[in-house]
Amino acid sequence: MDIYALTKAHSGMAYLVLLIYVVRGIMMLADSPLKNSRAVLAIASITTLALFGLGVFIAFEKQLSFADGFVLTKIIGLLLFVAFGVIALKQGLSKSMASILWLLGLAAFVYTYLIATHKLAPLF
């Protein structure tokens, strides 16, 4: 496998996941019922799963240890991104609480991106 091509695909998938997250956040702020439609949820879930799966595959291909701080920080960051996003975009939260959680998810994504691009040192 061409690891360079896989890494580029992973980066592209990250941008797509971020775009979907931002669009769903805008839908949340606009009180759009589409934010939790089956199609939007499916697209968001599949792209996030593909991002995570491709990252794990790349880690295996590069023979990285999952105890490595770089890999571990990226996994935890992505899990925080998903957790904050899932809670923020659920029905029933106040708009202010949902916005705070959504921003925390966005911050987790940005931090994970900065780790991935080696602009910040991993936490672990």
Short description:
This protein has 124 residues and is an all-alpha fold.
Give the domain tally.
Answer: 1
Helix tally equals 4
| Rg from alpha-carbon coordinates | 15 Å
| Order of H and E elements | HHHH
Shape: globular
List the helices and strands and how they pair.
Layout: H1 3-29, H2 38-61, H3 69-88, H4 95-116
Helix pairs in contact: 1-2, 1-4, 3-4
What keywords describe this structure?
124 residues; mainly alpha; 4 helices; 75% helix
Outline the structure in words.
With 124 residues, the chain is mainly alpha-helical. The chain has one domain (3-116). Helices cover 75% and strands 0% of the residues. It is built from four helices and no strands. α1 runs antiparallel to α4 (95-116) and α3 runs antiparallel to α4 (95-116). The radius of gyration is 15 Å and the shape is globular. The model has no long low-confidence stretch (mean pLDDT 91).
